[in-house]
Amino acid sequence: MDQQPTIDYRLLVDNMTTAILLVDSNLNIFYLNSSCEALFDISLLRASGQPVINLLHAPNDTFNTHEALLNTLKSSQHYTRREATINVNFKDIHVDYTVSQLNTGKPYHPLLLIELNPIDRMLKISKEENFIQQHQVARQLIRGVAHEIKNPLGGIRGATQLLARSLNDPKYAEFTDIIINEVDRLRNLADTMLGSRQLPSYEDVNIHEPLERVRSLIVNQTKKKIKIIRDYDLSLPDVKADRDQLIQVMLNISVNAIQAITENKEFFVEHEPQLMLRTRIQRLVTINGVLNRSAVRIDIEDNGPGIPEDILESVFYPLVTGRAKGTGLGLSIAQNIMHQHNGMIECQSIPGKTVFSLYLPWESDHVAK
Ligand SMILES: Nc1ncnc2c1ncn2[C@@H]1O[C@H](COP(=O)(O)OP(=O)(O)OP(=O)(O)O)[C@@H](O)[C@H]1O
Ligand SMILES: [Mg+2]
Hints:
- The protein is α+β, with helices and mostly antiparallel strands.
- The chain is built from ten helices and twelve strands.
- α8 packs parallel to α9 (243-262) and α9 (243-262) runs antiparallel to α10.
- The protein is elongated.
- Residues 252, 256-257, 260, 302, 304, 306-308, 315, 320-323, 326-332, 354 line the site of adenosine-5'-triphosphate (ATP).
- GO terms for molecular function: ATP binding; hydrolase activity; phosphorelay sensor kinase activity.
- It is an enzyme of class 2 (transferase).
């Protein structure tokens, strides 16, 4: 008879989509698997030894989590909570979780096993798919309009130049100049609306390189008035990407942050403005409907007033702007570039903390949904 293959159980547990937490008899975290690290955005190293209650209990939850956990520890009766709220990075997440006792064979060292299933993930995926479709329709519409605007502009410009020449009178030159300047402005706008016509040219990119380029551009632009903090994970692998397009994405997002800071100086009475650039590995992330085992994440975070609430949901749509002089194209173009890279941009914003997270999958690490 064939021998049974040996299974590396640690590997198995780390590849499960269910988040798993092991808790010791003092209700401190003993172990969490990769899904759990991703769910709570915390590493095993940082989490172990911490009271589990810090992760599992949202401040406004009326359920007595501590007592329920102690009860299972004592009585070995398992329990399940549905649609419980946990708070991760200021954001409420809804999970179903089951707590049961793990029999370790040692009577005085019972462990609790907590299995968590986020229910928002499914919601988020369908919301994302909807969003991508709507975004594509909106972009096509915009491109169509931009194209139609651009078509007659060449003719108007040429005719105005002819007119200026045949009039040959400085009295009218002022008016023909206005027409030409406005036509040029409109053409530039239409070009931005059309977006880049070039397909990305992919190469191996260490994302810290474009990020540093953007940082130095911002330092120059802001004359060091905004503190820039770097928190890089230098062990990140290279990704296949178009370097120049990545710079454009990072720049569009950073410039928005700088504008939000400089145009709302009254917000900074008690704290100084700052921009944080952070890089991380993100495990198990669904991007455009594909579950990736790992992706590179770049956070661009500012402590400005936040995105106005009325445009928060639609901020990636073209022509959505909260600024008097904004065209509302920066984020739409950035999201488009990231989609071409099989990546995405996510955004969370409350006054004092706005984070744009860029995700780029590792090419070799795709797994089916
Ligand atoms: N970090 C941020 N803090 C506050 N508001 C932001 C931030 N980033 C974006 N926004 C809001 O989102 C809107 C849309 O941004 P987007 O870059 O798409 O367009 P825009 O900046 O208005 O115009 P442009 O086409 O010149 O970039 C902004 O007008 C602003 O109101
Ligand atoms: Mg912008």
